[in-house]
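Supplementary Methods, section 5.1.

A reviewer requested that the exact input to the structure prediction be made available. We therefore reproduce it here, unchanged from the version used in the analyses.
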Amino acid sequence: METLHPRIRFVWSILSLVLALVCGVVVVFVDRLVVTVGSWPAVVVAVLIAVAGVSYSILRYRRWGFALSDDAIEFEYGVVTIVESVVPYVRIQHVDTQRTAIDRVSGLARVVVYTAGTRGSDVTIPGVSPDRARTIQQRLRERASTDDIDAV
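The structure derived from this sequence is encoded token-by-token as follows.
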């Protein structure tokens, strides 16, 4: 199994810290506008969410992996619920590489594999370098086009 770029841990952790800050600010506003409880609950909420979020990011990174086998792409990810998924190349409709604003700032990209079926069957590989994303996209295109069905 191939792992994600280590920088994705940092991105996920920063997003968790931003969420913690926002939740702390919401608690401060609730304290000021609705019920007076003091400022310590905001700190406690922010610290708890920050610790939980950073811990979750580290565990999420350790568990996320993918592999390109001879006939399918395999995924394994999850912290609380472990998901092991296999997408046969013949089921792939098309493959995109995407770079959100956060991806561009962090120097990362993601590969989105669209499959035949419902929208919920699409799979995203987050946190790969842009060059690796293009390589994965090209390999999936080549492997899918060697099958009887020109899927990509």
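The beta strands are 2-3, 65-68, 72-77, 83-88, 92-98, 109-115, 123-128. These observations are discussed further in the main text.
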